[in-house]
């Protein structure tokens, strides 16, 4: 692949683009466009933005991703979790519904785009790995609950607020007396219909003779039916005049050119939220992209994905959108509908542009409660507490990270939750590696093997102590080994030799080297000789570049058995 | 050792306390007391506190450490680096010399003591390990330079200030016209004398027939001579009236009972500095204690050391002191002078209490320039840039951590420097483990061994890909393996089997497990079977508690050779 094609993937897939591919991409684009119209409106509502922001965020970003992204089927646009995080971040710096709020959303997209682009150019995609799977699972589950709860106010027709679960529930409870009955009926009916569409429509269509794939895709259009029916109902029955909240006038036209607010205070306040949104959006997007690519043995380049998503977010920042990423639901629909290249995404963008130009008057009477129902039904599939049970059974450290993430996300909001999860997983990992397993070993009689004296019947010698270290030696565990040896030799007057068996040591860093030197010095003062055995090649290369091999009182033995023979016969 | 004696070490060493031990401890105490008087005054000056604070900080803390600490020879009190950090921390919340300044020093000692005590009770001593050796070395070197520079104003007799090297040098340069000649002469003479004492006095005394140990100890009393001579000179020549800054009136009496300022704002502002002071003080103290204990095959319990140092700092907080820790110079003198138990420390405290009661009028005329010279000569031995050369030769990652620590400590102050060093070492370590070495291996002909195909002449099979992972699998590298396998199989149409050889995998955490499941799923869609080989016992135990072994498309082979035979003959 030529170098330029690495940064501009269309030069790669464009060469083999033909009529069949075009047809497949066009069909997929039509299906995805129909699905995206209500979804985009709903997510804009979730982010606290005017409805058109959701559509705008799906047009230019999807085109830029088509130009720079490496996934053939990923559909980029507003997604539930990122919309929630956007609302949480901007809610701290501006009043919902104000001019400043929409401008801050642009700034957030700009920051996020710049960070993703920068990470991509610096090839820092690996940073996302520090979000462990359990932390992501816990975060997504808790976010799903938060999102569903945040939408209840639209179903109930009350002006509740709050960013944490407790705040939201308390605010809802305070407004229970103000529930708007017509809104509640519409919202509940819509939610029930959408649940049925999700569970019952596909089997029904298949019983009616449709192929499974067609039934599946048709069932995905359920929200469009709910939108159409409820809009018609509100219009015909004049429910808006009786207090049912509606979407109202959405400006007709292509995405406007917008300029994000670049005031230093705002940039400073949004820096950390933008970083979290970038990393979480990237992780979500890459895992969807990889799952889809694997089905066709295609390749995803995570660093190039950063560039693609960065470009998409910059696009959102300058065309009236807000932070976007590759969404799970829409990408799967795109893939299942037969999309073969990112051109399908570009065609989807054209479809949405037409919708923005022509169709917005049709949704004037669309009740917000129906959009809320769409969101609730979509995000409840994200809620999956089984991660708690699974991680408990497998590893208590992972369980602790999940639990902390869920509780803090629900109790203190998305940013606190995901940060705590990342920090706790890192801390637990570092704790584990800072307490390495060290076994005192002896010779298995009749062999040249050395095993743990606590588990096996082995020969030992009172003048010789052999310790096998089951971990690379680095600063976090270097002093641990010092303490361990110091404690082991304290009061043992027979001891003449200590051998460190290094078969499982992949690295000795400078701190560990100095610890070894300190151990050597201290053993020397105590009249004990220090030896090493079974040191790996690369580790030995490093040691040769230091003074340690000159200073060590004993020798470096090729095998532990050599050490045993030399040190026990020398008496 | 009974459980209670673990928390109260005197119950252990007290049982064998006899007349010889008493004599040895008393002799050591007298020597250390003489050495500590000028040192305590000087460090108080460095911390920006009145001279008596240095003496007070040496009395009750040393007694409390004797009660709770595990080192037999450690001498606790004010030390150079902690004094500098105290000045930096309090300088941000109060004006030097104000009432609030001294009160904030007590608060800092209280916080530091509470943290150390808490870490000790929770057995969190391992936290100190995250300060890598190169970071500590770089930090100590940079601090030494900062301390020496900060004292130049006393030698020059100018009112300069600043907390970073640049600020200090700039402030000194601005005051160059105001240099006080008499002060400069006294300071320079004192510094020259002290340098000579350090380098030339011991050889001279030995030539005069003294035993090396006695010569060494006598040479350590050099500062007392400088103090006495310069005080006499100022008094006799009336230099204080001609503008030479002197210590002046130091209150006569035992340490007062003091109450730290507990206002929430102050506690909040001092939280991070207190943590850094605690950890750095602890690391310095424990490494001195371990070096000395090793010489007599004694045992140090780091968690109990935290309790001892915590108690000492709490003592300092309530008796007019400031943060303390185990000092290198004084502990070595204590050890060399023959101290056998912590009782020597208690006797030193009595000596200093007598000095506080009776001797303070004698130092009324002591010039501050001489104390500054004492500090400069003491800390310049800490400055050692060879760590840069040594770490460069051994490991570029360690070099980067040292360089960042030195530059940031000099350029932005002690807190920024040490924090940056710790974060950078952690980041570099995590970066290394997140990019594990993965080798594609093949069969060495005529053996059952498998080696890297890039380095050895080995047999391979186009339908079989064997990857050896040289690192434990955890969240930070789990996705790395996913990408690697995805890239390797993309476009390879002959491939039927992938084997992961796990001989160097000590752990598979929940994220890595989910990655393996994802890899398994993706390979399955691509028609490729996933196998494992040489999985270690404990890792296998974990895997048995998950669904992975049910879901994996292939098998788990005991040895890689078994896998090779089964998968290549099965064609």
Summarize this structure as a short list of keywords or feature phrases.
homodimer; 571 residues; mainly alpha; Transcription Regulator spoIIAA; 2 domains; 6-stranded mixed beta sheet; two-stranded antiparallel ribbon; 24 helices; 8 strands
Protein architecture, described:
The structure is a homodimer of 571-residue chains. With 571 residues, chain A is mainly α. Chain A has 2 domains: 381 residues, no CATH class; 132 residues, STAS domain (Transcription Regulator spoIIAA, 2-Layer Sandwich), CATH 3.30.750.24. Chain A is built from 24 helices and 8 strands. A 6-stranded mixed β-sheet of chain A has the order 4-3-5-6-7-8. A two-stranded antiparallel sheet of chain A has the order 1-2. In chain A, helix 21 links the parallel strand 6 and strand 7. The first copy, chain A, is elongated and about 100 Å long. The N and C termini of chain A lie far apart (66 Å). In chain A, 55% of the residues are buried.
Beta strands of chain A, count: 8
Largest sheet of chain A: 6 strands, mixed
Helix fraction of chain A by DSSP (H/I, runs of at least 4): 55-70%
Number of domains of chain A: 2
Q: Average pLDDT across residues of chain A?
A: 87
Figure out the total of helices of chain A.
24
Cα-to-Cα separation, first versus last residue of chain A: 66 Å
The fraction of residues in strands of chain A falls at 5-15%
Taking pLDDT < 50 over at least 5 consecutive residues as the criterion, the unreliable ranges of chain A are none
Radius of gyration of chain A, in Å, reads 30 Å
The helix/strand class of chain A is: mainly alpha
């Amino acid at each position: 692949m030529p170098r330029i094609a690495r940064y501009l993937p269309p030069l790669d897939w464009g060469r083999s683009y033909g009529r069949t591919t075009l047809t497949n991409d066009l069909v997929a684009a039509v299906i995805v466009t129909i699905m995206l119209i209500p979804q985009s409106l709903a997510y804009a509502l979730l982010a606290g933005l005017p409805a058109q922001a959701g559509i705008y965020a799906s047009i230019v970003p999807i085109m830029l991703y088509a130009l720079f992204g490496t996934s053939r089927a990923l559909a980029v646009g507003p997604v539930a979790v990122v919309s929630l995080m956007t609302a949480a971040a901007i809610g701290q710096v501006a009043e919902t519904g104000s001019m400043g709020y929409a401008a801050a959303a642009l700034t957030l997209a700009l920051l996020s785009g710049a960070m993703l682009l920068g990470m991509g150019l610096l090839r820092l995609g690996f940073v996302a790995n520090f979000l462990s799977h359990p932390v992501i699972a816990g975060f997504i589950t808790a976010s799903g609950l938060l999102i569903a709860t945040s939408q209840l106010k639209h179903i109930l027709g009350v002006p509740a607020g709050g960013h944490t679960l407790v705040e939201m529930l308390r605010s809802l409870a305070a407004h229970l007396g103000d529930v708007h009955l017509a809104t509640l009926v519409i919202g509940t009916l819509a939610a029930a219909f959408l649940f049925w569409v999700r569970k019952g429509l596909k089997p029904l269509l298949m019983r009616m003779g449709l192929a499974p794939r067609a039934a599946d895709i048709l069932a995905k259009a359920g929200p469009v039916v709910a939108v159409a029916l409820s809009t018609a109902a509100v219009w015909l029955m004049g429910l808006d005049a009786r207090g049912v909240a509606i979407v109202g006038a959405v400006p007709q036209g292509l995405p406007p050119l917008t300029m994000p607010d670049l005031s230093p205070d705002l940039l400073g306040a949004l820096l950390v939220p933008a970083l979290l949104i970038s990393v979480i959006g990237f992780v979500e997007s890459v895992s969807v992209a990889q799952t889809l690519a694997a089905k066709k043995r295609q390749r995803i380049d995570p660093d190039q994905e950063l560039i693609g998503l960065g470009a998409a977010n910059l696009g959102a920042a300058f065309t009236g959108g807000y932070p976007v990423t590759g969404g799970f639901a829409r990408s799967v629909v795109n893939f299942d509908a037969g999309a073969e290249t990112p051109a399908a995404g570009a065609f989807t963008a054209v479809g949405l542009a037409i919708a923005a130009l022509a169709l917005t008057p049709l949704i004037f009477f669309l009740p917000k409660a129906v959009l809320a129902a769409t969101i609730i039904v979509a995000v409840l599939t994200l809620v999956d507490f089984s991660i708690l049970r699974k991680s408990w059974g497998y590893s208590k450290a992972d369980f602790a990270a999940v639990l902390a993430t869920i509780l803090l996300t629900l109790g203190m909001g998305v940013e606190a939750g995901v940060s705590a999860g990342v920090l706790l997983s890192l801390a637990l990992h570092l704790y584990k590696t800072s307490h390495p397993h060290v076994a005192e070993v002896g010779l298995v009689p009749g062999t040249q093997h050395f095993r743990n004296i606590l588990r096996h019947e082995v020969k030992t010698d009172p003048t010789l102590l052999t310790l096998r270290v089951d971990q690379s030696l680095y600063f976090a565990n270097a002093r641990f080994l010092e303490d361990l040896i110091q404690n082991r030799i304290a009061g043992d007057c027979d001891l003449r030799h200590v051998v460190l068996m290094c078969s499982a040591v992949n690295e000795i860093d400078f701190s560990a080297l100095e610890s070894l030197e300190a151990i050597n010095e201290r053993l020397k003062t105590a009249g004990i000789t220090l030896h090493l055995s079974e040191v790996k090649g690369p580790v030995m290369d490093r040691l040769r570049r230091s003074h340690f091999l000159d200073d060590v009182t004993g020798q470096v033995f090729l095998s532990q058995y050599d050490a045993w023979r030399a040190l026990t016969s020398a008496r």
